[in-house]
């Protein structure tokens, strides 16, 4: 199944008419598949190269150095470094039940670094001491702002596509309460992903508005088919192409018309064909855009189809995201306990 690639360039230089056309194309692709790819998204290739270079430098540090920016042992605040096994999405995807029996959760074979806005009103970022990786913080803060500017271009296009003014989503996002995540999936035996004893990241949906993702050339990202539950299709991207997907909050605003689509990272098609024994390490960078915590994530009246009932109740984004993330984080043992309470 092919995913659409759309040129976002008109959002910077085009006429309003051109922008509406692109907005409609983006909205239609997201409605159909939940995911698409963007070119000319406005984040410079050099910046993307630098982003991956910093990510590699960060994850190459010894474990005891990375542990100097520790993620707290709780899902919130989602800040700092998490070693392999700290966050396990199979719990969140509720996949661990078979014949009514709760199975132990699968460990995500990934390590992450999470960051919010430098001036977030609730949570501080958790940085390494500057001398451990000089320049990392300054670059990552600049990328966070570039991601926000890009988010605004994409959300303006989607707003136009939905028949709203281009600024319709600004009031819901101006606080930049987003999360930027570097992920490294260490090398792994292909067999372990194929037989389900290990996972890179299990089937899940993202919690926020939209996610802006760059992946390296290793591949393995797969997206669930809207027309066939449980069928996953690989989504491959060219270098510098951005993958965009709908998160839970946008699904709620759109009353379910734009679906937060499940995805996972598995063995790539190329590695399957080559019957590779070992998969190389994989790097990705996700910019999770999120509504302001005090914004409602109930169905938006202006997005209700004529005659449709609102299916999502009023709830703040802050409350919603706390509920959604509560089950994913913690040690392997405690994740098992939490799962029984889902
Ligand atoms: O690594 C990837 O390509 C996807 C990661 C992802 O889906 C996530 O962190 O939510
Ligand atoms: Fe995701």
Briefly characterize the structure:
The chain is α+β, with helices and mostly antiparallel strands and 342 residues long. Helix content is 31%, strand content 20%. The radius of gyration is 19 Å and the shape is globular.
What does this structure look like?
α2 (16-33) crosses α6 (136-161) and α3 (45-60) crosses α6. This protein is α+β, with helices and mostly antiparallel strands and 342 residues long. The two termini are 33 Å apart. It has helices at 10-13, 16-33, 45-60, 63-66, 89-92, 136-161, 190-194, 248-253, 269-273, 317-325, 332-339, and strands at 5-7, 35-39, 80-82, 97-98, 101-102, 111-115, 179-185, 188-189, 201-204, 210-215, 221-225, 228-234, 242-246, 263-265, 278-279, 282-288. The strands form four sheets. It has an eight-stranded mixed sheet with strand order 1-2-13-10-16-7-6-3. It has a four-stranded antiparallel sheet with strand order 9-14-11-12. The chain has a two-stranded antiparallel ribbon with strand order 4-5. Bound molecules: 2-oxoglutaric acid and fe (ii) ion. Fe (ii) ion binds next to loops. This is Clavaminate synthase-like protein.
């Amino acid at each position: 199944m092919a995913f659409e690639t759309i040129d976002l360039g008109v959002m910077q230089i085009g006429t309003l008419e051109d922008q509406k056309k692109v907005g409609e194309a983006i909205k239609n692709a997201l409605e159909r598949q939940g995911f698409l790819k963007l070119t000319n998204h406005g984040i410079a290739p050099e910046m993307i190269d630098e982003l991956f270079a910093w990510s590699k430098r960060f994850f190459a540090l010894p474990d005891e150095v990375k542990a100097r920016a520790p993620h707290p042992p709780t899902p919130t605040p989602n800040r700092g470094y998490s070693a392999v096994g700290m966050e396990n999405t199979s719990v969140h995807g509720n996949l661990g039940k078979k014949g009514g029996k709760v199975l132990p959760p699968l460990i995500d074979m990934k390590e992450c670094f999470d960051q919010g806005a430098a001036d977030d009103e609730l949570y501080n970022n958790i940085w390494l001491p500057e001398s451990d990786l000089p320049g990392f913080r300054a670059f990552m803060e600049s990328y966070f702002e570039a991601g926000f500017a890009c988010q605004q271009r994409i959300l303006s296009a989607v707003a136009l596509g939905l028949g709203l003014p281009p600024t319709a989503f600004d009031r819901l996002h101006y606080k930049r309460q987003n999360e930027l995540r570097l992920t490294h999936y260490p090398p792994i035996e292909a067999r372990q992903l194929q037989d389900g004893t290990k996972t890179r990241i299990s089937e899940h949906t993202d919690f926020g508005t939209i996610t802006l993702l760059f992946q390296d050339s290793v591949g393995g990202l797969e997206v669930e088919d809207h027309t066939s539950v449980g069928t996953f299709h690989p989504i491959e991207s060219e270098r510098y192409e951005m993958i965009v997907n709908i998160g839970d909050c946008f699904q709620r605003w759109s009353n379910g018309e734009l679906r937060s689509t499940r995805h996972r990272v598995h063995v790539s098609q190329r590695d399957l064909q080559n019957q590779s024994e070992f998969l190389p390490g994989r790097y990705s960078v996700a910019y999770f855009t999120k509504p302001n915590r005090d914004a409602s994530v109930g169905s938006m009246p202006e997005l209700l189809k004529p005659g449709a009932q609102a299916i999502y109740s009023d709830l703040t984004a802050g409350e919603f995201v706390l509920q959604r993330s509560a089950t994913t984080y913690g040690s392997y043992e405690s994740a098992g306990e939490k799962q029984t309470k889902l």
